[in-house]
Amino acid sequence: MPLNIPDKLPAYDVLTGENIFVMTHSRAVHQDIRPLRIGLLNLMPLKIETEVHLLRLLSNTPLQVEIDLVHTATYRSTHTPESHLETFYTTFEEIKDKKYDGFIITGAPVEQMEFEDVAYWKELTEIMDWAKKHVTSTLYICWAAQAGLYYNYSVPKYPLDKKMFGIFSHTVTAPQVPLVRGFDDTFLAPHSRHTEIRKEDIQANPELVLVSESEEAGVFIVSTRSGRDIYVTGHVEYDPLTLKKEYLRDKNKGLEIEPPENYFPSGDETQHPVVRWRSHANLLFSNWLNYYVYQITPFHIEEIS
Prior knowledge:
Layout lengths: L2 E3 L5 H7 L4 E3 H4 L7 E6 L5 H12 L6 E6 L11 H7 E2 L1 H4 L4 E6 L15 H14 E7 L1 H11 L4 E15 L13 E11 L2 H5 L4 E7 L3 E7 L4 E4 L9 H11 L25 H17 L11
Parallel strand pairs: 1-2, 1-4, 3-4, 3-6, 4-5, 6-7, 7-12
Antiparallel strand pairs: 8-9, 8-10, 10-11, 11-12
């Protein structure tokens, strides 16, 4: 089944060009089916690019998925056209009475700030509280994973000596968890962050399960025992050139930045990166939608509590 997205959303042309089955709202309303309702709180500055990254992964499922794009009201992005936000996005105030089968909160380039100093922190905490009674399962990505673990479980973040930047090998530490069903013994995923959460803090909380980790990149996937909250510290959604763009952006600004590790073939920046994380990224999102959303959520969405 297709991904159901708003009419004229720019991601439509990109995804159909990649032979991904998507359907506009105007066509979907003619199908007699109860789609999964997924909310996406997009905290990234380049919202259109992030939409493509995540919608690409959400499309790889036999389920019909309906997306609501959400942005913060307390902070307006300056990197995304206002017309795009007005046309395709809504605010928390406008959706707070709705129920969602699943909800995704993206990363944000604010990880070196204290959580409470982030302009939209109060609004974000309201959304995280709201999700506990209005969402079947919430997926937190990168900075949002750190923010969710901090707010919900008092798990601190720690600054790194240098940016965790590149493609790293991971292992599954809780193979019985459905989220990693079908995963290989080792698999690759991208990271791009200046801070970390630590294994001992996760293991000290009986409500949390360390699902996957990396010898180099540390904690990768954490789940609550109920599966209602999933925390992913990396960026499995990144496309082939995202790390390259981040590297060149910082390099051109004169910032101290090393090339992303294990990314350019033979370490040659002139070579096109080879994607080696796509299959597990798709599997992660498919497993989340199937085992933590579709298999759990009630048929009548208003019964979520």
